[in-house]
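Subject: complex prediction, re-run

Hi both,

The earlier run crashed halfway through, so I resubmitted it with identical inputs.
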Amino acid sequence: MELWYTQPQTDNIRFSIKVKEELFSGKSPYQQINIFDSDEMGRFLIIDGIVMLTSKDEFIYHDMIVHVPMATNPDVKKVLVIGGGDGGTVRELTRYAGIEKIDMVEIDRMVVEACQKYLPLTASKLNDKRVQLHFENGMEFVRRSKEKYDLIIVDSTDPIGPGEGLFTMEFYKCCFNLLSEDGILVNQCESPFYEKNAKEMRKAVKKIKSLFPISKVYQYNMPTYPSGHWLFGFASKKYDPIKDFKPEKWEALGLETKYYNTDVHIGSFMLPTYVRKMVENPE
Amino acid sequence: MELWYTQPQTDNIRFSIKVKEELFSGKSPYQQINIFDSDEMGRFLIIDGIVMLTSKDEFIYHDMIVHVPMATNPDVKKVLVIGGGDGGTVRELTRYAGIEKIDMVEIDRMVVEACQKYLPLTASKLNDKRVQLHFENGMEFVRRSKEKYDLIIVDSTDPIGPGEGLFTMEFYKCCFNLLSEDGILVNQCESPFYEKNAKEMRKAVKKIKSLFPISKVYQYNMPTYPSGHWLFGFASKKYDPIKDFKPEKWEALGLETKYYNTDVHIGSFMLPTYVRKMVENPE
Amino acid sequence: MELWYTQPQTDNIRFSIKVKEELFSGKSPYQQINIFDSDEMGRFLIIDGIVMLTSKDEFIYHDMIVHVPMATNPDVKKVLVIGGGDGGTVRELTRYAGIEKIDMVEIDRMVVEACQKYLPLTASKLNDKRVQLHFENGMEFVRRSKEKYDLIIVDSTDPIGPGEGLFTMEFYKCCFNLLSEDGILVNQCESPFYEKNAKEMRKAVKKIKSLFPISKVYQYNMPTYPSGHWLFGFASKKYDPIKDFKPEKWEALGLETKYYNTDVHIGSFMLPTYVRKMVENPE
Amino acid sequence: MELWYTQPQTDNIRFSIKVKEELFSGKSPYQQINIFDSDEMGRFLIIDGIVMLTSKDEFIYHDMIVHVPMATNPDVKKVLVIGGGDGGTVRELTRYAGIEKIDMVEIDRMVVEACQKYLPLTASKLNDKRVQLHFENGMEFVRRSKEKYDLIIVDSTDPIGPGEGLFTMEFYKCCFNLLSEDGILVNQCESPFYEKNAKEMRKAVKKIKSLFPISKVYQYNMPTYPSGHWLFGFASKKYDPIKDFKPEKWEALGLETKYYNTDVHIGSFMLPTYVRKMVENPE
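This time it finished cleanly. Structure:
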């Protein structure tokens, strides 16, 4: 039976996954949520028509969003996750015994509940006792919060719909204020390849560079995202992800990872020339 | 007008590019060749239904297939290119003044002529006077040749159809024999992500490892190839691409490149854990 | 969200319906069954990857499979339906007060139950007290049965999978034997347009012509079936659907129909020349 | 090689034909014109992204647009064809020895020239000496012309782009005025099935009914048009296509046709109930 999910990655590029079965379809107050099963990618989550994660390649995204900052500063104790309703980021964070508290702010309860039911491997650690779920707008949470965090991870959708506020100057400023003196901000930062993604990436980079003394971009290969070449932003008040990187310390934790390793850590900051130029002159 | 070229990247994944116009369609004795124009990717070349290159991302492939070995040993003088009928590999090679001779062995004259006509930016340097074109089977050429080369680049299609012989043990042995004492072999080495590609990758890696004292794999992000995560093999009798890498020497050449740089060189060998495991235990 | 059901109507033709939601997916011992919801066609039923019915155009199929024979002989009292698990044929039959008994033989209980749940408008009359459901192989039922029927309707899938037996000579012979002296056989008879369908149509027509004194083919326009030009076979021991047609008698019943009317009845037997030739010389 | 032409028949329905080769692509001042070759449909003509004709089913369209009016009045001598740049309508008209003059008014010379080159079987009779080609706007031609015609055939595209004027009240009025006392108007009249087509059909029918004493709609099955159920309008000052139909006279001409015959003529006016209602109450 030919049932295909198609993401128009641009107006002129389509990426399609053959679907075995639809497991969930729901319209929350914020977005359209679908979960499908497939032979090639296993189960996968679609929000507003866009691939959020597939069971086959989510390990790449979650390895890179968590282990790069954690290996830069393995002493992180308090973490704020904005977005990340699928639970994958939290799952990786909970592997660090040194982390004492994880606040996760996800606007859409339906995403969390659907992932807990249909993507248990990804969402499995949301009930870790260090995790506190806040079902509210990320922008409002950071505006209001008085906490201090060692690490803030912005695990957002693209800057359309509910994710839009998470790409604004005000949001980044609030994050800056919530970070401790040696705090790190990691944010989902789009892609350099297709024009629309690159434009959003440059805008985000420009804003963050204007706020943080240290601001970099690192890359990873994400097969189900447009072009497969995807980026995270790394910003910090104190730590440089390369100069301050102490691989032995992370190695000593003995975590097994399928994508991340301490070499990949370094290589991920070695950007192709055209990407480096975008990041250096984001306008 | 909706005209779409679709590559079934696996049985369950389709990648589609909206076509503006078909520029060329021909059936040679070896394969089906099509060249299309598109808004997103510019002109692109399809062989036996598979994307060979697009004008938008071919710079990545050709930067990485040429500049990694050339920066490892900038003294290369004689080069053999097997395949590469589109001319992109030769184009990058001709930028090195030190290269004295390039033998290019392409089985299919129709590919070369179509690319010269419709992809002139890629094929432009095939008439460089150091280049000699040999329209014959790559396997037979390496079996017969008595030359010695400093660099052999296997710029082949996937191991089906005319490209199949270029993935055999005999072929790699012949390449080994044709290489000078400090010779380097670079080969198109598929991808670790989708099972079919990964299987071919492992088979090629295993064969090359059994022959060469130094054998590595390096990665690049190729948006129009399946998964976007693609590999080249690097094998040598003498040079390690990292230990023997002297970035200053390459920098001194003053070549401008859009993807490759001396950081990318190093980062490209920093493989994700699951890829590293495949390469270390290719069976 | 782009989710598309696609039917490859031939190797070279694809027909796709945008899906809102999957309502049912099940694998019975006989076939793969899916029910989807869509904006354009409403809910629709797919069996083994092929469109069986859509809420938007099923009225055409069911009008034509039932009212043509019933208007030819409005005195029909006992009906046998082979297949027709969606219930649409039975729904139309139950509108005739004169019908006393309907035996429906459907091999696949899962089809019936899924349609009762998700396609209630089609399946609504399966619980009419004149209807008796037999969940068994149609071939075996007709082989064994000793009943006499005034009308047999073969409401089958294409002649692959469980529908295959319903296109054999033995099956038609058994139907002949089960029909009363003035009995009528109507059968789903594929399409004249695409080669594969036309071949099956000719084979079925040839077999039926060899058995029945009166054998015709009539057409209807079914938008979601390949080519939209679709046929039913009409065979009888006694009644000619045109010569014995008494439109007034049917009009007197006062049935409202959206596709069928007594003009359409006549027009449906007026076949295009190329179809007429196929039917006259089915080999 | 997977190259597919896709027509979005509605926002939610796609019809796709696998393409072997693109034969022609051109942008005239009026529209985008493409001609493809395919295994299933042979060569086919696309205008502004919409299927105009395929070699496999154009016989149906051209049989029905020409032979229905010509069999109603085989004494037609002067014919005006508006549109029809592919030449198929003229080809069928030239088979009538009694026709003395055919004026064909096609706005787009590029369509005619491309069809003459790549669709010679369809366009073959445009050089018949009774045919005069006028490359101009159909609306302006009928506004200006002082001729009298026995038959006007509006062989237009859908009412968007250059075809739009050919669906206006003013255009139909001018046609009325150009027709002789027993003149017949036949016009491409869209389809009853999908909402957008049905709306255009009703609007056209309503206008023509208000002008002509006799106005009907007849149907044919066109596999490559949306839904396959397609209509022509028949309007006349004198002749009813059924009451005045003398099949023997047309039969006597001895024309061989693959779709049309004198039964199909009659059956084509026997409309399904829902279509009949639309035509009777076009608003």
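Residues 105 and 134 of chain A are 5 Å apart (CA to CA).

- K.
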